[in-house]
Amino acid sequence: MPRTPIEPRFKIEYLSILDSEGSLDTALEPDIPPGDLKRLYRAMVLGRRLDERMVRLQRQGRIGTFAPIKGQEAAQIGSVFALRRTDWMVPSFRETAAMLWRGWPIEKLLCLFAGRLEGGQPAPDQHDLPITIPVATQLPHAVGLAYAAQYRGDDVVVMAYCGDGATSEGDFHEALNFAGVWHVPVVFVVQNNQWAISIPLKKQTHSATLAQKALGYGFPGIQVDGNDLLAVYAASREAVARARHGEGPTLIECVTYRLGVHTTADDPTRYRSDEEVKAWERKDPLPRARAYLEKKNLLDDGLEEQVDAEIARAVERFETMADADPLTIFDHVFAERPAHLEAQRAELRERLGADPPRRVDEERPLPTPMRGQRKTSRWAN
Amino acid sequence: MGKLNMVKALNLALLQEMERDDGVVIIGEDVGVDGGVFRVTEDLHRQFGGTRVIDSPLAEAAIIGTAVGMALYGLKPICEIQFSGFAFQCFHQIENHAARYRARSQGRFHCQMVLRMPYGGGVRALEHHTESEEQFYAHIPGLKMVIPSGPRTARALLASAIRDPDPVIFFESKALYHAAKEEVPDEIETMPIGRARIDREGRDLTLIAYGAMLRVAREAAEVLREEDGVEVEVIDLLTVSPLDRETISASVQKTGRAVVVHEASRNFGPGAEIAASIMEGAFLSLEAPVRRVTAYDVPFVGFAREWVHIPDAARVVSAARDTLAY
Ligand SMILES: Cc1ncc(C[n+]2csc(CCOP(=O)(O)OP(=O)(O)O)c2C)c(N)n1
Ligand SMILES: [Mg+2]
Question: A317 an active-site residue?
Fold first, then answer.
C-alpha cells in the first residue's frame, strides 16, 4: 500500500485593520457606532489609568500583589465588547479592563487584591466567573458552561481568556479538545503577550502561532493584532456570531505585549531588554485608538480627568468599606455548616472575644438568560 | 560562609550538589534566567547552562512527568513547582508514578528526585499562594515529605533530599525565606531525613511543630516560661513523613502533655497522625488529651483574614494552658 496524503486543509490568518502607523484598512474597518467607539476608548483609558493607580496602591501596601494589564487594553476591550450581558465571561487573572467592562465595580476588584474574599463575588445578575489563578484551569469550565447553555437551548456564548503560557498546560488542550468534540458555543481568547513571567514565547512552544493549536482540535483559529482594537473586535464579533449560530468554537490569538511587570512581585529587567519594551511601546494600543477617534472627532475633552475622578471615588469607597467580620471565613464553605465548622467558628468567636451578629447569607439563584431562545443548535438538527 | 537567609542557604545546597554530581539537573518554571520567582536557583543557569537548569514551558504535569523519565534513566532531577498550590496539576504524576515506580518495577527502577515547592502563608499573597498542603503528600506511600525550619536545616536537608534514592517532597516556607539569617557552614552539610530535632528541652509539655510554625512554637514556649513558669520541650519535626515517632514518644513519655501546631487545616492533617502516634507510643504517660492548633477547615481566607486563620503564639499558649490545666 502506498502512502496516501490526507491533505488536511490548514490555514491561519493574521488580521490587522488599524496598524501602529495609523494606516487603516477601510475595507475591513468594522462599523462601530460613534457612541460605542467612545465607550470603548473610555474603557481602555480606564483600564490603563486604574492599572497605574493600582501599582501605586500596591507600592503603598494598600493592596497586595496583582497582575497589571498595561499594553493589553485593546485585546481585552475589543474582545469583551462582542459579548452581550447575558453571555458568559470566564477570566484568568489579568483581565481587569475586561472585567470592568462586564460590570465588576472597581472597589470590588480592589477588595479582591487586598486579600478580602468579598472581592470575588459576582453580582447576582452577572454571568461572569471570578478570576482564576491556576493557569488554564478555567478553560474547561468555559466549555462546561457552553455545554450547559447548549443543553438548555439558551442563546448564550461563553468567552474564556488565557495567556500564551497557558497554552502549555494540559487543561488548555483538554478544554479545546472537548470544545471541538462537543461543538459548543465558546470563544477562547488567548492574550499572547509574549511572556509567561520570564519565559518568552519561543521557549513556550515550537509552533509558529498559538492560533494553529485550534486546528489540531478541529475548529478555526485566527491570529490578530492584539493592539488593534478594530481587528480584535472584528475577529471577536465573527467568532461570537459563529458560536451563536451553532457553528462551534473559535480560538483568537491576540498578539500583544505586557508592557509592565508580570505582577508587582516581578522584576522584568532580569529577563528582557529595554529595547524590546521600547519597540512594543511604539505599538501601544492606546495612542492608536486615540488617533482613530480623533480623526472621527469623537474625543471628549477631559476624558482622562473624568476617568481619574471615577477611580478616585472608587478608591475612596474601597477604603471606607467596613472590613468583613472575620467569622465570615466560615460562611461559604458549604451550603450548611457542618458540626466541626460550627465548633471552629465558636472557637474563633471566643478568641475574638466578641459576639458579632450571625451573617445571613443571601444566596439567590442566578436569573437564567433567555432560556430556550437559541436559534440554532447542533442538537436541534 | 557566614550568615545566610533561607533562600541563599537553599541556593548553596543546589550549587554544591550540582558541582558534586553531574546527574543533578534542575527543571521548573522560571528557574533559569530569572533564577526562580523567589531566587532560590539564582545564578545556577549562568553557571551550569540551560540544559542543566531547565526553564520549562508552563506545565506542572510535564515537569514532574519528564522528571520521572529522567530519574528512571538515572538522572537526579530537582523540580521546582512555583507554588505548592499549583502542584495539583502534577499530582497524578507524583502519586501514580514518582511514588510507585520502585514498587511497580519491583526495585528495577526508582525515582531519585526532589520536588521543591514554596508553601504557606503570611506573605500577603493571593489564593493558591498561601495554603499548606503537606498532608496530601504525607499520606502517599513511597514519598518522603520534608519541611525545614530555617536556613541551616534547609540547606542540610536539601542536600540529603537530593542524595536520597527516593522521591522527596521538599516544602519551603515563604514566610521563612527572608525571615532570619543563620550561620551556615561552608563545607557541605547533610542531615538525616526522618529524624526530628529537639529544639528546646523542657519537662512539662511537648510542643510539636515544623516549618514556619517552629517560630510560633518557640515564641509560645518563651511566653509559657516567663508567665507560667512552665518548661516546654519544642520538637522541630523537619520530616513530616516518615514521622520520627521515637523522638515524639520519648518526649511525651517525659512531659505527659502534647500540643501539635501546623499551618495546614486540621481534619485528617499531620496533627491527627501525630496524636495517634502519641497514643500508640506514650499512652500511659499522657496526663491530658493531645491538642492541635491548626488553620481552620476552610478552603482559603484571603490574606486580610490570615491573622485569624494561621496559628499564632497566643493560640498555642492558650491550648498549652488548657492542656496543663486538664
Ligand atoms: C498552574 C499554575 N502554574 C504556575 C502559576 C504561576 N504563574 C502565574 S502567572 C504565570 C505565567 C502565565 O503566563 P501566561 O499564560 O502567558 O499569562 P500572562 O501572565 O502573561 O498574562 C505563572 C507561571 C500559576 N498561576 N498556575
Ligand atoms: Mg503571557
Answer: no
